[in-house]
């Protein structure tokens, strides 16, 4: 028994070491860290001195739009390529046959983690937790951690354990072991949810200083500071996203990029940078961050044909809609699409959905990059190549 345990331990240690040692280089960056703040309008955020100061060393994306309200669906979208009609912040479960960015990264052995401030321990699946501010359940919240709502993530122990607190991030940062893809949500005070625009901007400025030190990372690192949604529900969901870090080409520091982006652009940018397969959902057709597209020679960015008509304030129908009449099944992914990595859908997704694919079920995913909301719901049609 002891020998077995020892062998298991050694095998495990070697595996970890091999995994840590092998960095997968990307076309424009070798690491992406995305940090999410809450509920602020573009027009107000750009006036914050802390944001204006950060902008001097980065690229401001001037036309970045969230998908709907409230928070949760926007977080879900960024890692899953759809928000499944979600229009609330209650605890949800997305079936195991739905894949995410995690499947794409694991396929290429690219290390990843989610860090959530005041999460009480790795893999915590509760709805909320009281943390350092002692505000009674307003520190860590599940609705700002999309990973735990996907069964395809939580049903695998190793994946669940990759979700941890900011303390785990600080340890990894000190040891120079920060994974290659990192998703971070500060607590409800620091992210501005229960404080103010200025509070969150000042927090981000301070938090980012050590990460922006030229010696912070040995590899080209892109830091994407973003907001989940706007504050004003009556306006199209226009938010600030700032690209920072050592991956920003020096000539682009302090510039603006006016390409149309949404939270799906995170997925298409990762696919483009690391030549990843796609999810067969709204990830395909979403614009790739321009400086990344330029580094990789990607030329398919375009303005969505229907951009002007979409308001992104209410959710379209789907599995997680509160109104029973707006509840639909999970759409079949489109296996004919080629994504920004130049590759088709991930093979394991195609296998999982093979029965629905064989039946030729209609799908809303056409790779067009068009955007949808409750007033302009997705149009389902037979699967076609993009
Ligand atoms: C879970 O927390 C969210 C706020 O983060 C709240 O809206 C929701 O009602 C809570 N659900 C339960 C079952 O406690
Ligand atoms: C990922 O790692 C596994 C285990 O070491 C290996 O079998 C597989 O070929 C690797 N995949 C890629 C795409 O490098
Ligand atoms: C945080 O904001 C919510 C409303 O979104 C409110 O119900 C709650 O009382 C606030 N908590 C604190 C500690 O400010
Ligand atoms: C956007 O949608 C919301 C919710 O339906 C509505 O209140 C608002 O008036 C709309 N705004 C525009 C500019 O259409
Ligand atoms: C995906 O899983 C859900 C929930 O278990 C199930 O209802 C659905 O039929 C599955 N879809 C396919 C194509 O297997």
TrEMBL record:
Provide the GO MF annotations for this entry: hydrolase activity, acting on ester bonds
Tell me the Gene3D superfamilies matching this sequence.
Alkaline Phosphatase, subunit A (3.40.720.10)
Residues forming coiled coils: none
Q: Which residues form the signal peptide?
A: 1-20
Species assigned in the record = Triangularia verruculosa
Which keywords annotate this record? Answer: Hydrolase, Signal
Q: Which GO terms describe its biological process?
A: phospholipid catabolic process
**Which portions of the sequence form the region Disordered?**
360-386
InterPro entries per UniProt = Alkaline_phosphatase_core_sf (IPR017850), Phosphoesterase (IPR007312)
Please give the superkingdom of this protein's source: Eukaryota
Q: What is this protein called?
A: Phosphoesterase family-domain-containing protein
